[in-house]
Specification:
Length: 254
Amino acid sequence: MATFLSLCMERGLTSVSIWSSEIDKVGEAVALTSLRDNGMTVSGYNRIGPFVPKYIARAEFELERAARFGADHVFLFTGGITEGDRDLNSARRRAEEHIARLLEMANKVGVKLAIEPLHPMLAGDRTVITSLSQANDLCETLGPGIGVVVDVYHLWWDERLEAEIMRAGRAGRLLGFHVNDWLIPTKHLLTDRGMMGDGIIDLPGIERMMRRAGFDGPVEVEIFSSDWWAHDPAEVIDIAIDRCRKLFGQDMVR
Ligand code: ZN
């Protein structure tokens, strides 16, 4: 975490998303000081979920900690289907009930919740919320304090993408924009995301949709990739910033 933050600062970046598990490794005091010394604000805080007793019990702690870090939003991941279950609709209803309870807690603590719909191929083991339409419907039902994060990796294929981004924008619930790319072939669903520009996603096109919908937050690079993890972190950040500047324009990089 310390390396990441100082590399970001050296390149003039001012906003990062953080992981609870990484804070645990260095301790909260060190993480907070490191953010402050590097002049960083926190966009997203990872995360609450999967919705199993162990993590639900930690929810209040995570929300309060996210507030101490000044995070803009806290990510929710529902988890997939419980072992032996075949009833996706019931799993979705249970996840929605959990989210409703978490929203009450988050509203008390004063942090926003973020639903990030994942690619449908992850419905079995990661999340039962797999489209922006579904996330928008749920936010509409639940009311203020919850929004959506658009990750191109998960949503690029959706024929309703533009309509649903606009719908989220009209409701003021676009909280984040994650970029990476979809490689052909994709060798692993979780750890083979591409660097922006190396795959087939129309990244400038989706970024324009976000801006037209009123999103004025940062472009956030998120590349789970065993290939890129094997590179020198400074090199990866430099390439990512360069690609973002080429694809989205100079002033999008913060
Ligand atoms: Zn993401």
